[in-house]
Amino acid sequence: MIASRWIWVLLPMMLVAAFVADITTGSVRVPLDATLGALLGDGSVEPTWRSIVLNLRLPRAITAGLAGAALSVAGLLMQTLFRNPLAGPFVLGISSGASLGVALVVLGGSAGLVVAVGDVGNLAASITGASLVLVLVVAAARLVPTLTLLILGVLFGYAASALVSILLRFASPESVQGYVIWTQGEFGGVTWDELTLLAPLLVAGLVMAWVAVKPLNALLLGEAYARSMGVEVGRSRLWLITATALMAGAVTSFCGPIGFLGVAVPHLGRGLLGTSDHRRLLPAVAVLGASLALVANVIAQVPGSSLVLPLNAITALLGAPVVIWVIVSRRSIRDSGAG
Amino acid sequence: MSVLACSALAVGYRSGGHETRLVEVESLTLETGELVCLLGPNGAGKSTLVRSLAGMQPPLQGEVVVHGDPLFELSARELARRVGVVLTERVDVGALDVRALVSLGRYPHTGWRGNLSSVDVDRIDDALRLVDAEDLADREVRTLSDGERQRVLIARALAQEPRLLVLDEPTAYLDLPRRIQTLGLLRRLTRERDIAVLLVTHHLDLALSHGDRVWLLPIGGPLEVRSTADESLASDLGRTFGVEELAGAREEVEAALGLSVELGRRADERRRARRETGWQDR
Prior knowledge:
The complex is a heterodimer. By secondary structure, chain A is an all-alpha fold. Chain A has helices at residues 4-23, 32-39, 47-82, 94-111, 122-143, 146-170, 173-183, 192-210, 213-219, 223-228, 233-255, 261-273, 278-300, 311-335. Chain A is globular. Residues 113-119 and 331-339 of chain A have low confidence and may be disordered. Chain B is of the alpha/beta class. In chain B, a hairpin with a 2-residue loop joins strand 1 and strand 2 (18-30). Chain B is globular and about 45 Å long. The mean pLDDT of chain B is 84. The interface between A and B is medium-sized, with 26 and 36 residues.
C-alpha cells in the first residue's frame, strides 16, 4: 500500500506516460517531435505523419483509454454487486450477445442462414446483439434475485458460444477468419466518427458509476445490510446493471470482447490503495484501467516492428497473473484461520 | 409511544399465489429501554418474524408500526433512521478498516457521496465507545476475531442512531464468554440509551439472565410474551421447545443462569481493569 496522496500523483503520471507511449507506437515510425508537433497543430509537420498521428493514433489512444477505464469500472461494479472477486464486466452476458450478433452476420451470411441482412457490418451486428442482451438483463434485474442474474448471464454465455460454434462449423474459411479477428479485440479500428458515438456512451457509464459510490459502499456488506441502512436496493441494482451493460456493450461493439482488464484492474486498485471505499477506489480504478489498456495496446503493436499481436492475448497475459494472485491470496487468508 | 407495535400480523412466504403462514400474532409491542429475546425451536419462524418487524420482508397481513408510523409508509432512509439490524451471516467486506465500516452506519444521515460531517464523526466515535471498540478503529475488519467483528457490526448499527436494534442470532458463532459480553453490552445499551433491543437467540440461559421479557414462539404458534422474572417460565420454555424435560429442569436452568451471571460479572471486572491500566489484549 502506498501513501494515499502519492497515488494521486503517480496514477495521472502513469496515464500520461502510457498515452504518450501509445501515440508514438505503430507500424510506421513517426519521430517524437513530429508527433508532438502534429498534436499541437504545427503546420510544418509532414502531412503523412500528421495524418497518421491525428487520424489513426489519436482516436486509437482515446478509445483505448476510455475503453480501459470503462471496462475496469464496470468490473468493479459487478464485483461489488455480486460480491464475487471473479465477476467482471461480461458476467451479464453482454459480450456473448455481441459475439452472437457478429457471428450471425459474419458466419451466418456465408452459410446462407441470414439472407435478408444485406451488408450489415460487424459494428451494427454487435451493437444489436449487445443491446438485446442489455434489454433482457435490465428486464430480468427487476424480476429475479441477484445471484440468479449471475447464473443467467453465465448460462447465456454458454448457449451463445454453442450457437457460435455451430455457425463456425458451416461458415466459409474467410468468414471464420473474419470472426476470429473480431474476437481478438482491437482499439485501432475506431474512427473519429465512431468515437463521437462511443465516447459519450462510455462517459455516461462512468458518470453513472461515480454517482453511485455511496450505495456501492453500503453494498460491500451485502444486500440485506444495505437495505437496512436505507439503500433502495432494487433501484440501485438496476442503476449499476444499466451502467455496466452500457459500458461493456459499447466497448464490445466497437473494440470486440476485451478480456481480463475488467476483472484484474479492480483488484490492482484495491491492492494499491488498500481500501474498498469506492469514493477513492473508483477513480483510481478508472485511471489504472485506462493506463493498462494503453500499455496493452503498445505491447500489442510490438514497438520497433510492423508486427501486431492480438490485443486479447496481451490483456490476458497481463491480467491472468493478477487474477491468480487474487485467488491464491484469498485462499491463504482463509487457511490462516483469520476468517 | 411504543418503539414497535403490531396487530393482527401474519408473516411467512408468498410464492406463486400460495401463502405459507409461519407466525400469526394478535398484538405485540416493544418499549424504549427494553431488551426482549425471541426464543423458539428451529423452524418456528423466528427469523421471518423479526425480518418482517424490521421491514426487511413484507408481512402477509396486518400492520407494523415503527415509532408511530406504519412501516410501509416509511422510505428506506427514514426506516434506517429508526431500525438498525445485525444479522447472523458473516460479512466479508473486502479491505475496510473498522472506522470505515462503522461509518457506513451513517448512510441514512449523509449526502449523495456519503461524506461525513463533524456530527457524523462524533456519532461514529460514540458508537465505537459504546461497544468498547475504540482501540479497534484502525484495524482491518478481516483481521478481527468473531467477537470483535460482532461488536463492530453492532457499532455500525448504532451509528444509524436507531430507536430499535434488531439482532438475529448475533451470538451464534461466539464462545460463552463472548456471548455473555455481547448480551451485557446490549443490556447496557438499553439502560444507557433510549433504545429498544429485540434479539433472536438460542441461548436460553442468556435470554433469561439478561432479557427483560421473552417472546416464546413454539412451532405453529401462538406467540406468548413472558417476563423473565416469571416463576412458571421453565415449564413454558419446555412447552415452547417441545421438550418436557425442560419443565422439570428449573435447577439446571438456574445453574446455567448463575454461571452466566458470574462470568458476566468477571468479564465486566476485566473490562474495568483494562480501562484503568490501559492494558490492551493484543
